[in-house]
Amino acid sequence: MAHPASATIGQLRASGWESIAVKDELRRNAMRQIASGQPLFPGMFGYDDTVLPQLENALLAGHDVIFLGERGQGKTRMIRSMVELLDEWMPIIAGSEINDDPYHPVSKHAKDLVVDHGDDTPITWVHRSERFGEKLATPDTSIADLIGEVDPIKVAEGRYLSDELTLHYGLVPRTNRGIFAINELPDLAERIQVGLLNVLEERDVQIRGYKIRLPLDVVLVASANPEDYTNRGRIITPLKDRFGAQIRTHYPLETSIELDVVRQEARAAVSTPELKITVPDYMSEIIATFSQLARQSPQVSQRSGVSVRLTVSNYETLVAAGLRRALRAHEDEAVPRVSDLEYLAASTQGKVEIEALDEREGNVIDRLLKQSVLTVFKDRCRIEDMRDAITGFDSGMVIHTGEDLAAGDVVASLNQAGAEGLRDAVRKLAGAKASAAVQASALEFVLEGLHLSKRLNKDAAGSKATYRSR
């Protein structure tokens, strides 16, 4: 949509445009969407009854907000989504570095322009996407970065140091009449945090060496990990006191919600025009259950958290493993199997921290994967219904599986004597008209579930496995 046609302050005034504070703008647009039943933050799963009501209240109350939560809980996504609640276009005085309001200019450049031209002062329009500023807090962040400093180049051009035009504005003034976000706020040095006190309370900035105060119109939003208060740094008490709302985020509380996030975030690795990719529900559930169990495990550091990014990466790795096998076997459908789960170590290591000093990371991951498979197997299959399948093994049946075996070779093992019960179990799980690739995945899942339920023996060598009677 094109911006409005007004090109001068006079035309803007004639159009009826009114200037309002950015918090009032957010409040007005949030009220409109809430009243119409539209979600304020689409794409945020699992927060409908916890985080989002608090955030909506904060917006309606006109509060600055700080989000507390472990990594991978959607804090940055929510902050960036707030931009959509701004008006699509906003007028500023032409050439302004700090988005000067045409009716209430604050910078010397804008004031001088209005004095010289009056209602003929030119204006330009900025899109809401340009009204968002973001800074990842680091220990070397300076006041000059956030607030501003003398620009030596402008001084060298002949301006006096006392001239306001020698200033180089920092990120906060440049986000005037918009939203400014600071990620990982505790990493900001305490002396720099002090520089934000005026922004949050008096709504202005004071730049060193000048007797000027710039009254700013900024919504300040920050994120932090609760552990950062004691680990890497802390948020000074006066600064915490100035945030109107402190909202605690959390990981998905249910497997189904975790999978909703995965389906939204998984990248192009999960789809390809070359061949069909099918991910059975039980395989997706194993991936999500793994993350859920890791968040409950005493062997995994809960201080650093188990990010939803782990679930997304594991899902993509699982799909990639199935895709690689299908390409090598020249199959027309890629379906992940239980034997592909061993590759999740690569996408898991580095995303979890192990607490037990005497435990190898690989052993902890392997145990959690097996527990995940068993959990999903018990949810989907009743051991009582598997008696005929187990009986076939008692009569001497042996089945070989592995990620290097083509789907047809795996499914062919169902044709041997005594496999009738196993065929029924696979058909019930995969469907009567399932392809060979889907059947092979279902067969491996059933066999591994029976093994973990202590109904079958398994001889494993890498991704290859042989299942036989106990």
How would you describe the overall organization of this protein?
The protein is an alpha/beta fold and 470 residues long. Helix content is 41%, strand content 14%. The chain is built from 20 helices and 16 strands. A 5-stranded parallel sheet has the order 4-7-10-1-11. A 3-stranded antiparallel sheet has the order 14-16-15. A hairpin with a 6-residue loop joins β8 (204-206) and β9 (213-215). α12 (255-265) packs across α13 (281-294). The longest helix has 21 residues, at 308-328.
Protein traits:
470 residues, alpha/beta, Rossmann fold, five-stranded parallel sheet, three-stranded antiparallel sheet, 20 helices, elongated
What is the topology?
Layout: H1 9-15, H2 22-36, H3 51-61, E1 65-68, H4 75-81, E2 89-93, H5 108-117, E3 123-127, E4 132-136, H6 143-146, E5 148-150, H7 152-156, E6 167-169, H8 171-174, E7 178-183, H9 190-194, H10 197-201, E8 204-206, E9 213-215, E10 218-224, H11 237-242, E11 245-248, H12 255-265, E12 276-277, H13 281-294, H14 308-328, E13 333-334, H15 344-348, H16 361-380, H17 387-394, E14 399-401, H18 407-412, H19 420-430, H20 436-452, E15 456-461, E16 464-469
Parallel strand pairs: 1-10, 1-11, 4-7, 7-10, 12-13
Antiparallel strand pairs: 2-3, 5-6, 8-9, 14-16, 15-16
Summarize the entry for a quick read:
The chain is of the alpha/beta class and 470 residues long. It contains 20 helices and 16 strands. It folds into 2 domains: 240 residues, P-loop containing nucleotide triphosphate hydrolases (Rossmann fold, 3-Layer(aba) Sandwich), CATH 3.40.50.300; 215 residues, no CATH class.
